[in-house]
Recover the amino acids of this structure.
């Protein structure tokens, strides 16, 4: 059932041209979907045909095989010598067939499964495009089972909008179910398992004059004394967004707060990609290694977010704009509002980040998410250590010295299921690192 | 035993003048020490004599009584109607006597104990002084049982030095036992239980050209991956302090770090006061509600630290200067060095801070210390809420709004027994709060 | 799309009898599904017809309306005076219509949505049945969007099987995707939002002679020293299950462990219900307030699990049997094996448990799940306090006394995303509590 | 000052016999105390004299030197080739002299310090004794600076009493300051740095008919809901101890609890030794690697506690008896009462336990203490792994298997500064481990 759903959805991203010959039709990118005990496994296939000889990749592993009329047969072998044998019949832009997996550990055991596939849109010729995307539907999960809304390519820029966390758009119209409904998913051509997706927030602008927050204090911030005093809180608080002055003020302030104005600093609460096969789609209220509801107030215009790709096309979602937010989102809601967004994407091939990363104008930032602030701190530190190893080839002793002298730790998020801690390093300090290996 | 020790010590702070008449001698401040099952209880007594009538305070509670020759008798009554009856004999600048405590809950039960007392130095006439203090001995505990090194008064400024955490002074001479040996304690005249001590760091300057750190990664920052990779770390790392350029560089750098320079930002790792009666002295490696080894890298020149007073004279200690330190002190040592320090003190009468506070040029900061980062976060938040209640009379709903929009959370310390989290609020934002109650 | 999926699925639970008259057909239970911005909202409708007058409940709220031929119209009103107006057309065992929701806060705003509904199977006459259920498909999520596999009623007993966490059944055949694939979901007739489902584990028996575990140590259990020493662990460990002796031994033991035998104590790692509307389905590797992968080694034969119902029919899933398991599942896998299971269900109307509960032969147990052991402890304690309030009418002071003298805290689970802590109280001690309010 | 204090104290443990010749006098055990920048360093010296040749140990390191009349000179060398050169003059049972320490890292640097020493009591001939110890004074710190109350030897049994946590004895008389005042310290002859002290609780009996507790709920156990509901708790609760029935009942019960009786299970809340040089004495309200206020309700009659020795004589303290206590001491006080205690001690030479251990009739128990339950769990696990390595020579993979199948985790203490988690393993299961290395 979920498989057929996926197939229907993916039809949206198929090209419409149907070339005359199998060779031509075949020599492009395909998305294969296999039913594994009721769970859809998506794989990316690239094929080149030279006469009857097939080459290419299946989720990055080299394939070798043959083409006979509309029938193709090939074997993909991964680094551990596991083999996937594929037999398929071409039908225009589609193929159906059977996939036999043989583990190198158990060469006599073969798992055979039906699959179907579709040809992906071919990348338009010419320079990167700007895609205008008007979302019609919004999604409440980060999922690989949702049909891509649009296909984009590395270098492309997307101009679009996000609704607020309650599903309300720039005109005050409720368009989606509360809980951070997302714009997307964006299928990024060429992105596949083992890559990292870079999302550059080119422009992030407010597009209405109010935001909603709460007067709550998050559970993680309350000791007994605060809990007792804050027990009746949780009311909605409306903010007026004054774009001219660049501040937010309370719509209905108390006497104490009648002059209280906070600087506008538009941010995207959610930037996430679809989780890996074998992992359930996750709520747009959650966050983790796939990004998601990170609620980090430095994901602003000019910043870049880095996330691992584990599904063909990455399947990027964005949403949950805040006009401003204190660290930790202690009120459970930031200043929730709709947003006008422009972003572009890049794909870093064969890369891996143990935890989401952000680059701002001044800092490199590793974000750790975990069920406690303590464990989030561990992940942020480990993630930054990995970054310094990858990009600067530092030994652990050198990493210790850099962190001990220069680390900036902030608590980004405490209101969600996972807490978020960021470790920031100044780019100007890191530029002092000599890199003899390069 | 500990009592007699205390008495010997406190002799150091006695005035030397011996007026001719008991009335004159008596009308000043006294420090009483009572042995409570082997534990020294220090109390501050102020006395005024009008004829034979005594008035004044005992640890802030009003007293009433009489003077007959060298014999005085009075009763102090606290808010809960507990009574302390005192009978004493004056002997120059000393008194000895008996103290009978009667709880309002058990009026028939009386605890009678011997005490002795000494007259405090009278505050010198004239404007606040600058005291030059050359430390001869350094202390490895924050304790009420250590003799005050010098008595100062609100408004006074002290110029002194601190040795580094290993006990080494500005000349490279080891002067004290490793483990953050402290300069002090400073007895602040007039400070008593129920007050808050404000310590203004007027000047904080490096006085030698090197600092020592480690290449460690603190246990709280390591996940399994980091733990495995960092298992052989922990070596000493020497830094060269270049006061002209305002940076620290490695004395013996690796190729990668040969140009790595971090800005100097001298800070005091330790600012603490003696703990309350009934609490053990605590190690200069620890921190908590009395301050201590807070290791917060914004306790720099120009900042003010606020700590509760629970002992007569507060008994202030300072030490553990760092030339620079990343957030969290992830290397377990900052850039440890000796320091030239100038600070002044103020006493805020009848005040209470649930957690240490710091005021910097730009921010108000509440620091929470606890055994986990999660609980430290709770204490910092609760401490800031209290501050906003005390100084701005905000309701909890208003506090939630201010925090949710403007909180800045940093992780200050993860290397010590307690973790430290700071909640910072910009002073310019708080100046917008209207305060109709004032 | 997800709506149509749900409708197809629910057809499986429809009765097949088609009575002649609308009144008769209507007077039973219905499951309505409404599309809320792409998210399926399931509601349970009960209807009684007296002439043209309709009465009954919609998710527990009283309804009032009329029937005219095949057209029905009614209004449901909840405690907060929110109204749901329904207009529908009967078509045999199905109905389609429109649902208009009016919030009492915003009487002028109406949300109108299409819905469709199906008549539920009528409860068979006679005493509770024993249902033999042979699972054909297994599920890797706890979800309200999965079609019920079978409908059962309070008092009914189900006899069924579970595969092991890797999807392998009692014959060694892989039947499902790894990751705790579940048997179910079981639709419990009469269960609706606001109820509590009691699941009695009547029989829990091993049905094969081996189990698989790992030699891992969970991340939450490792300090730096253990992390370093355990860095190369994670291999699969096969256990032989000796049902005669009642022990498990290693299939391929080291010299040290050649005589090491642990007592068999079969348990169900997973017992869970579908999450509420607005919450994403959750992975069968996770746990929380809906139960799920609780991995508590006292969920054994003879125990009862209590979980909140938030979806019509509760939608119960079971799986992940362990032949034995130490506290905490420190090896990440228990002794994973397939299982022969018999359980019965009861529905406690209008009840609420803040956290899952278990009753064993000797104890009442509240289980807290959270991202840290510390927070799980808080939830377990709060859950037990609620239990003592609900069933014994104790005041908080009395609860404190009972816990302080008699609490037993165990750490149940540390290997999953959430940690689990249980607070146990002996039933014989609680029987001493007098209960004058009853 | 602290040095002279120590010297005075130690005089209490000196033998009174004064042999005629230096050789004879010298050939015994000595306690040396050196002033290290105001901090007393205690060392244990054993000497044998053969003619003029001296041999023996200084804190376990071999010494070699000469005796000339009353002047002795020797050098002690440790494993890292650091040398301590000693020059001293004998004066009866005392010696005074100078100690020069040369680090192998810095051979040219010598630290020279004055020390004084006293001869320890010679162990009485014959079998182990039973020592009757009537405490006159009680101590509120675990400290190496407190004079030993009595010297005992491995194998000796002590019969003594402890007062309750409020300092009240078996007759209802207040004898000490509240806060777990301790009986002791007991100087264990022969125990020195690098050993482990085993404390066998031979007999632990109630000696009065009441106990005091609170109706509090510890901060670590409260979520927001509980915090709000429990905000007015904290009152004292008196229990009647019925030794005949073996239960405790409330002295002034509510209607609900009028029949509520909990089984008596006397336990020692505090068993601790003095901390190492360089560490501050710690409060009797705290716990950690030196034991202390562990509050584990299985430290009962018949159990054995294992603690590292870091000071000559170990300096053992006991106190804080509870008539019964739920896990975690959630009420902050157990059922606090005075106790009649009999214990014996053994010394395991050259051993190390990373965390306190307990052996009960049925289990081996490792206790982890840390600022969070999460970190305490890590330490308990690491401590048990170490035990299995030391006593069973298991590889980490084997340890993982034993823990995964058989671990029992309980939360022992949540009311103190550190939380305590215990990991228990059944002794009968461990007896199955083959131990070919032995």
């Amino acid at each position: 059932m979920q498989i057929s759903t996926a197939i229907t959805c993916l039809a949206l991203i198929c090209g419409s041209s149907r070339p005359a010959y199998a060779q031509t039709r075949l020599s492009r990118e395909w998305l294969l979907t296999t039913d594994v005990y009721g769970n859809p496994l998506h794989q990316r296939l690239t094929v080149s045909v030279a006469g009857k000889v097939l080459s290419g990749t299946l989720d990055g592993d080299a394939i070798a095989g043959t083409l006979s009329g509309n029938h193709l047969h090939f074997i993909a072998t991964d680094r551990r010598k596991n083999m996937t044998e594929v037999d398929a019949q071409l039908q225009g832009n589609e193929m159906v067939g059977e996939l036999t997996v043989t583990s190198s550990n158990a060469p006599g055991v073969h798992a055979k499964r039906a699959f179907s596939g579709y040809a992906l849109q071919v990348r338009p010729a010419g320079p990167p495009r700007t895609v205008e995307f008007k979302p019609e539907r919004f999604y409440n999960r980060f999922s690989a089972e949702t049909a891509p809304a649009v296909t984009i390519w590395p270098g492309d820029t997307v101009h679009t909008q996000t609704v607020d966390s309650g599903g309300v758009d720039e005109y005050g119209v409720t368009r989606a179910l509360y809980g951070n409904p997302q714009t997307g998913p964006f299928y990024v051509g060429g992105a596949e398992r083992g890559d990292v997706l870079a999302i550059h927030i080119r422009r992030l602008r407010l597009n209405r004059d109010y935001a909603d927050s709460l007067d709550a204090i998050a559970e993680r911030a309350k000791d007994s004394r605060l809990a007792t005093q804050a027990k009746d809180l949780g009311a909605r608080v409306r903010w007026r967004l004054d774009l001219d002055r660049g501040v937010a003020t309370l719509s209905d302030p108390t006497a104490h707060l009648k002059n209280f104005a906070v600087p506008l600093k538009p941010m995207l609460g959610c930037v996430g990609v679809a989780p890996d096969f074998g992992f359930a789609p996750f709520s747009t209220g959650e966050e983790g290694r796939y990004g998601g509801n990170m609620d980090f107030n430095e994901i602003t215009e000019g910043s870049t977010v880095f996330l691992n790709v584990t599904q063909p096309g990455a399947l990027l979602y964005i949403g949950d704009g805040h006009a401003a937010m204190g660290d930790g989102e202690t009120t459970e809601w930031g200043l929730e509002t709709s947003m006008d967004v422009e972003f572009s994407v890049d794909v870093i091939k064969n890369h891996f980040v143990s935890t989401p990363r952000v680059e701002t104008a001044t800092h490199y930032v590793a974000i750790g998410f975990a069920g406690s602030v303590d464990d989030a701190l561990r992940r942020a530190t480990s993630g930054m250590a990995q970054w310094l190893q990858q990009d600067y080839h530092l030994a652990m002793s050198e990493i210790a010295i850099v962190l001990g002298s220069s680390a900036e730790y902030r608590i980004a998020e405490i209101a969600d299921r996972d807490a978020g801690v960021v470790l920031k390093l100044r780019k100007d300090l890191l530029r002092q690192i000599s890199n003899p290996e390069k």
